[in-house]
Every structure is written in structure tokens, then in C-alpha cells.
Amino acid sequence: MQTMPQEKTDRTVIRLQDVRRIYKVGVERIHALDGIDLDIRKNEYVAVMGPSGSGKSTLMNILGCLDRCTSGTYELNGRNTTRLSSGGLAHVRNTQIGFVFQSFELLPRLNALKNVELSLIYAAGTTWLSRRTRARETLVRVGLTERVKHRPNQLSGGEKQRVAIARALSNNPSILLADEPTGNLDTKTSEGVMKLFDQLHREGQTIIIVTHEEHVARHAERILQMRDGQIISDERTGPNRVTPPSQEAHHE
What we know:
Structural class: alpha/beta
Number of helices: 8
Helix content: 25-40%
Shape: globular
Oligomer: single chain
Number of domains: 1
Order of helices and strands: EEEHEEHEHHHEHEHEEH
Largest sheet: 6 strands, mixed
Strand order of the largest sheet: 6-7-8-3-9-10
CATH class: Alpha Beta
CATH topology: Rossmann fold
CATH superfamily: P-loop containing nucleotide triphosphate hydrolases
Distance between the termini: 42 Å
């Protein structure tokens, strides 16, 4: 895999301001997210951790435009997504966000190439040939040159996840969202998948991973800890540190 130079930029890709998500269960109101303020800049590599019920999955759903916040604002690439229609949110998901899930979510009757190609059908201005070419290039990018014609039942767990990552990358998304991407993999295979995420980050991809596993979170350069719907710590752990806006204001 060819390594591209890492882009250095402070451009904010994600901005959440006082984001709250409240669910009503009978007469009870559950604050899944309770006033989240968060900026993520281009090419950041972020891990989100927390116990069950901490709000990390709800945060992922908001970031992925799979759910709406009850109040507050979520800007993606400077655009306020809060008031978008369902169709508008679907367009954002299809063009700006790549999803990777624990369970791979591959179609069993399609080979790796067609699983990736399928995600490009709704991309504007594409032809059959351009979709096929793009799908093949993305599979090569994740190290599956020799496995493009294999169906999911002919692939290992790690290879299935690489197909899922290729599918997520096929539209050149602004952000890559991974929800427990190694949850169904053994330790050795997990490390191989995480090395792929590391490589994608070096190539300039903005990555957000939700995980409960310390060894997975250690690959990121920024770790958010959540509890009771709030971010209780925001630690920058890697060499590519960016000062959070709150600290910038403090030092001025």
C-alpha cells in the first residue's frame, strides 16, 4: 500500500455545540447526551470510550446522521445538519460519511468487488465502469488485491472487515466512523485491522472509533471518555497533537 503524505490542517470537520439527546420512556426522560461540546479537525484520529449507557453509541449515531439531536447544533464541514430533511441527512450519509460496523454487514451472495460497488450506485455522475474501477481500487488500497472475487463465506473475519472498510472508503468520505470494528475478531486479526486504520490516518483520513477496548483506543491520537451522556475527559495521546479550542482560549 502506497503511503501518501499526511496533510497538516486545522480545518474543523465536526463541531457539536451543547448537543443533547433525550429519549422519553413512559413518563421518564433519559438524557443519552447531556450537553456535548466537541470539535474534531481534519485528519484527527479519535477514539470514543465509555461503559455501557455512557452515550458513546448515541454520539456515534448523531455524528453519522443516523439520529437527530433533541437540541444543540451539529455542523459537518461547516454545514448545520440539525435542520436537514430526512433526504438531506441521507445525502450527507451517502457522500460524506463512511461507516464500519462490528458485524461487517456484507451481502452474502455478492463477492467483495460487488459489495463495495453497490455502495457507489447512488453516487452522482457514476457509470458502471467507473463504479467497478473505484471499487477495485479501494479493495487494492486495503490489501485485498487477490480476494476481489471472493464471497463473504470465502473470506476470513479480518478480510470481511477490510471489505467493509473498502466499502466505507469508496465515496471518499470526510469522516470514517467505526463502531467496535474489532469486536468480532481475535487479537491478532484485530491488530491487523487497526494497522490498516493507522495507515488510512497517515494518508489523511479523519477517523472516529467507538470502542471499549484499551488496545484499540491506544491506536488513536485523541481519546474521549464518556459517562452519563457527557465527555468527562479529552486526552491527546499522540505526536500529532492539536490544542483543543477551550485550551486555546485559556492561553490567550
